[in-house]
Amino acid sequence: MKALAGLALAAALSMAAATALATADCVTCHRDKTPAAVAQWQASAHGKGGIGCADCHGKDHARIDQDLGRVEPKVCGECHAKALKTHESSRHGMGLHSGWGCTRALEGRSPVECRFCHEAGSTAPKGGLQCARFLKQSSSMAESGCNACHRVETSCASCHSNHNTSLAIVRDPNVCAKCHMGPDHPQWEMWQTSQHGTLHASVGAQTGPGCQRCHLGAGSHNVSTGITTTSGNEPLPDKEAKARRAAMLAVCAQCHAPAFAQRELARGDAIRAESLALVKEAEKIVWDLADHGLLDPMPAARPPHPQRGHELVTDSQMLYEDTSHIERLFFKMKKYDLAKTVKGAYHQNPAYTHWYGNAELKMDLVDIRAEASRLRARGAATAQTPEVRLRALKSQLERGALAPDEYQREKQKVLDGLAR
Questions:
Q1: Residue 201's pLDDT band (cuts 50, 70, 90)
Q2: Which of 200, 228, 229 lies closest to 212, judged by CA?
Q3: C-alpha dihedral over 182, 184, 185, 190, to 10 degrees?
Q4: Which of 45, 61, 126, 144 is 20 to 30 Å from the Cα of 244, by its Cα?
C-alpha cells in the first residue's frame, strides 16, 4: 500500500515538475515577446498560486499559434465553478448567441468562427438566437464592432482582462462602459450622470453605488438579477418578474426605504409600458404601408434580409441598412430611443428619461406619421384598388393583426363595393 502511495506521489511530483517546466519555457520566451503579459501573470493570484500558462492555454503551441488557445469559461470553471454557473445563467452567458449568426455560407469566413457557436466536434449550435445585423457586416466590423462586446459569453477576460486577477478591475464601473454605452444602451452614461454616479465620483462607492453593487452583488456573476424585462423591454412572465423584482428591491433596500424603492421602480414600469405603446403604434403604421405596397423600396425590391429573405422585419432582427426611410426612423425609435427612455427611468436619470428618451420617442412618431402620409398620398391611386385592399387584409389576418371575424367583415365590404 505504501509502495502505491509512493508511486502516486512520485507521479504527482513528476506532473508538477512537467507543468513547472512548461511554464518556465513559456516565461523564458514570452518575457521578451510579451513582457507585459508575463509581468501581469507573475503579479496575479494565478502566478503566485502556481497556475501556469499551460494550465489555461494548453500545451499545444501550434494550436495556440492558430488563435485556438483562447481561454474559454469552462476552463476557468474548473476552479471557479460557482462563478461560471451564475455567468451562464445571465444575459452575459448568451452574449454571442444574441449577437452572432452562422457564417458558414458567407464568403471568406474563418473556420475559427465555428467555435463561438459549436463545441469542438459538434454541429449542434449552443443556442438558438442569431443576429441579422451581425451577418450584414464585413468580417473586420463583425470582429471589432460586434464580437468585441458579445464575446463576453465565451471569455471571462472580457471583464477580468487577460492575465490580471485584481478585483479592482472588475469592481470599476468603467469595465462595463466599453459595451454598456452608446445610442442603444447607454447605461454607463446614465449612471455616471445620475445621483448614484455623482456620489460615486465625489464621495466613493460606499455611498454612491456602481454597476457592480446593484447588478453583481456579493460577487455574483449573474448580471440579470433584478431585471424584470427582456432585452427588448417586453415584460417577463409574472412569476419570474415578481422574483426578480424582489431581488432588486433587496438591493435597493441597502440604501433606501422599501416604499421609496417600490415607487421608483413602479414609475419605471409605467414609463416602459407607455413607451412600448408608442413603439407599437409606429410599428402598426409601417406594417400597414407594407400591406398596401407603399414602402419605398418594398422588401422585394432590395437586398434580402440575411435570415428572412424578402420579408418585412420589424422585430429584434430588423436592420438599419437596406431598408426604407420610414423603417430607418422606426429602427431609431425602437432600438435607441425606447432604450434611453426605459433604461433612463430605471437608472434614475431624468434627462435621459425625458429629453434623450421620451421626447425623441414622440418626435420619432411625428416623423413616422408624416412620412406615412407622404407615402400614402404618393401611392393613393394604387393602394385603394380592390386587389390591393384584399391582399392587405389577408396579410393582416396571417400575422394576427386582424381576427378572423374582422377579416371576414372587412373582406365583405371590399367585395360589396365591387358588386355595385
A1: very high
A2: 200
A3: 60
A4: 126
Mutual orientation of helices 359-378 and 258-291 as an angle, nearest 10°? Answer: 10
Instruction: Assess whether pLDDT exceeds 50 at residue 15.
Output: no
Phi, psi (5° rounding) for residue 235? -65, 145
Three cell numbers, residue 374: 407622404
Alpha helices, DSSP H only, in 292-399? 325-331, 338-346, 350-351, 359-378, 380-383, 386-398
Complete domains list, the chain, with CATH: 71-170 (no CATH), 184-257 (no CATH), 262-419 (1.20.850.10)
Q: pLDDT tens digit string along 337-394?
A: 999 999 999 999 999 999 999 999 999 999 999 999 999 999 887 777 888 888 888 8
- Angle (CA) 144 149 153, round 5°: 125
Residue range 94-131, pLDDT digits in tens: 766 554 455 555 556 566 666 656 666 776 666 555 68
Peptide linkage before 297 cis (omega within 30 of 0): yes
In whole angstroms, what separates CA 245 from the centre of its chain? Answer: 21
Q: Do the Cβ atoms of 343 and 352 come closer than 8 Å?
A: yes
Place of cell 417600490: 262
Q: Which of 145, 187, 181, 143 is nearest to 320 (CA)?
A: 145
User: In this structure, are residues 309 and 287 in contact, taking their beta carbons and an 8 Å threshold?
Assistant: no
